[in-house]
UniProtKB/TrEMBL annotation:
Residues 355-590 form the ABC transporter domain. GO terms for cellular component: plasma membrane. Gene3D superfamilies: ABC transporter type 1, transmembrane domain, P-loop containing nucleotide triphosphate hydrolases. Keywords: ATP-binding, Cell membrane, Membrane, Nucleotide-binding, Transmembrane, Transmembrane helix, Transport. It is a multi-pass membrane protein. It is found in: Cell membrane. This is ABC transporter permease. The chain crosses the membrane at residues 12-33, 77-98, 156-174, 180-198, 270-288. Residues 25-323 form the ABC transmembrane type-1 domain. GO terms for molecular function: ABC-type oligopeptide transporter activity; ATP binding; ATP hydrolysis activity. It comes from the Bacteria.
Length: 598
């Protein structure tokens, strides 16, 4: 097994943190500073109550006593108020800087994550995409990325702040009264455990609600995209009932979530209230018995109130940590997938050469059956070969192998004597034009879609390619001509128009090898013949591979290969095969084709 690039979560997080580390570091510094300043004010207020307003014999800190005295402050209480305001202001500025650094860090992080994920996904082998459902990948690249970002920016930096608050807060509290600090401390684990328990419950309920929301939007999406089927089969009432049922389940899940949240908040308030109550009672008694000054009592209560929120938050951080851990693993799965690799010094040979399939055997899964079984044939450069075969006989698979979308299991494919494994994969693919049966068009203009395989294409080239693909007529009928926007998944085009757009894409590529994988199927026989004729004149030297169920598409090829269950059953020209009285002849008879060329 190949070594994983990111064996641990930490390694992946550090990889993504490149570029945003400095912002998070600064945000932690500002978080610490803001906590410090927040914690100074209760001290000042406590001191003021005891020494300045009251009569407790206390001294000013050394750095202040050089230019201030308690008597001076007694006459100018406003100075103390100004100090309190100043400290609060500095605290607020630190909090602002914390927040700014934190959000800058988070946005930089999420941008790096998306870019690196996308770049990695772009370089993964074709087989990987087939194995992994698109919806799941999108979920990983959006929701999981967001989850990790939120955890790192909101929870993790928050945790540093909480720890600082706890350490400094408890130190200050113990300097006032160790006994009372211990009483406050007893409640802390109770609050943390309680909040952890609830957050875990909340997370589980939230996951259910999330899933139900996904189910609900799937039903809505299916009905919107499949509206024609729903109408044609009169399924409206059934679909409405199905939606309502799912909506009930979804609403119930969210109601449960709200009930849980309300319970969490009120019980939390209850426990914190109880803690404050105990502290107030014990503190009052201590002041009454002269064990504590009123100023210290006020400071203590302020510290206690300040600590309750971070402690409750700690439970959330711990529970979110496990959820973020799951998300990091889901992203790690993608980042650990092996990218497609070329050999050390890949070759870029002339591609206008003979193509040879030499004892090629292939299976998709290691444990699965052989789909291509010991197939050998040669395609002379510049010739046209037709491949005929029943559904699932392996025609498309053969072409995927030639394009190196999958590696052959046994045997080899050579172009001009060079094994395709030794050829640079980008070079190989850019020299093999492949038109698929169901082409995929991007949500861009027709012009941009046609020019997709050739950045340097001029408008005249686009027009010429459209003419060869018999698309020009249709385009001229569109209001916006070549600027017509191809809607989501190309819905504004008919099946035949889409196929012709894909053919135009390939023509503009000027590839020395052209493959038409059942890509003339949505065209009527006349257009099919017209396009093939135009292609022949335009492409001249190119080697052409035609895959089709329609004999008329293939019959003029220099060589026809009949594939049956992954094996070559018959090879020859139309006349030769017709005479053989085999599978080819049978198909000709079904399609009412005679033994002569069209
Ligand atoms: N990604 C895959 N994983 C596993 N098996 C696959 C995969 N793709 C195709 N197959 C199987 O390989 C066999 C050949 O498929 P292929 O698409 O090459 O046939 P085809 O001759 O082009 O069929 P059609 O004329 O219907 O397009 C089929 O049995 C199919 O189920």
């Amino acid at each position: 097994m190949e070594k994983e690039k990111f064996p641990t979560k930490l390694k992946l997080v550090l990889y993504f943190l490149q570029g945003s580390k400095k912002y998070f570091f600064l945000s932690i510094i500002f978080a610490i500073l803001s906590s410090l300043f927040d914690l100074i004010n209760p001290k000042i207020i406590g001191f003021t109550v005891d020494a300045i307003i009251g009569d407790a014999p206390k001294k000013l800190p050394a750095f202040l006593s050089s230019f201030l005295s308690i008597d001076m402050l007694k006459g100018n209480l406003l100075l103390v108020a100004a100090l309190v305001m100043l400290v609060a202001l500095i605290g607020a500025i630190c909090r602002y800087l914390f927040s700014l650094m934190n959000s800058t860090g988070a946005e930089t992080l999420v941008m790096t994550m998306r870019n690196r994920l996308f770049e990695h996904i772009e370089h993964l082998p074709f087989a990987w995409y087939v194995k992994n459902p698109t919806g799941d990948l999108i979920q990983r690249c959006t929701n999981d990325v967001e989850m990790v970002k939120n955890f790192l920016s909101e929870q993790l930096t928050g945790m540093f702040r909480i720890i600082v608050m706890l350490v400094i807060g408890l130190t200050f509290m113990s300097s006032i009264s160790v006994k009372l600090m211990l009483v406050a401390l007893v409640f802390l684990p109770i609050i943390v455990l309680y909040s952890l328990f609830f957050h875990n419950k909340l997370a589980a309920t939230f996951a259910v609600a999330d899933e139900e929301e996904g189910n609900l939007s799937s039903i809505a999406q299916e009905n919107l995209t499949g509206v024609r089927v729903v109408r044609a089969f009169g399924r409206e009432r059934y679909e409405k009932a199905r939606f309502e049922k799912q909506n009930d389940i979804y609403t119930a899940a969210y109601m449960k979530l709200s009930a849980l949240m309300s319970a969490f908040r009120s019980i939390g308030e209850g426990i914190s209230g109880l803690q404050v109550f105990v502290i107030v009672v014990l503190g009052t008694l201590a002041v009454y018995h002269g064990e504590m000054t009123p100023g210290n009592f006020i400071a203590f209560i302020s510290y206690n109130a300040m600590l309750v929120w971070p402690i409750r938050r700690l439970g959330r951080v711990i529970s979110e940590m496990s959820r973020a851990g799951v998300s990091i693993d889901r992203i790690r799965y993608i980042m650990n997938a092996q990218e497609e690799v070329n050999i050390a010094q890949p070759l870029k040979p002339d591609m206008h050469q003979d193509i040879i399939f030499d004892h090629v055997t292939f299976r998709y899964d290691e444990q699965g059956p052989d789909i291509i079984k010991d197939v050998s044939f040669a395609i002379e450069k510049g010739s046209t070969i037709g491949i005929l075969g029943g559904t699932g006989s392996g025609k498309s698979t053969l072409m995927y192998l030639l394009d190196r979308l999958y590696p052959v299991t046994k045997g080899k494919i050579t172009i001009g004597g060079v094994d395709i494994r030794d050829i640079d994969s980008d070079y190989l693919r850019s020299n093999i034009g492949l038109v698929l049966q169901e082409p995929y068009l991007f949500s861009r203009s027709l012009k941009d879609n046609i020019a997709i395989a050739n950045d340097k294409a001029q408008f005249a080239d686009i027009e010429e390619a459209s003419r060869i693909a018999s698309l020009d007529h249709a385009i001229n009928h569109f209001k916006h001509g070549y600027d017509t926007f191809v809607g989501e998944r190309g819905v504004t085009l008919s099946g035949g128009q889409k196929q012709r757009t894909a053919i135009a894409q390939m023509v503009i590529q000027h590839a020395p090898v052209m493959i038409f994988d059942d890509s003339l199927s949505a065209l009527d026989a006349e257009t099919d013949a017209k396009i093939r004729h135009a292609l022949k004149t335009a492409t001249g030297q190119a080697t052409v591979i035609l895959i089709s169920h329609r004999i008329t598409t293939l019959m003029n090829a220099d060589q026809i290969l009949v594939l049956n269950h992954g094996k070559i059953a018959e090879v020859g020209t139309h006349e030769e095969l017709y005479k053989q009285n085999g599978i080819y002849k049978k198909i000709c008879d079904i399609q009412n084709i005679g033994g002569r060329h069209a």
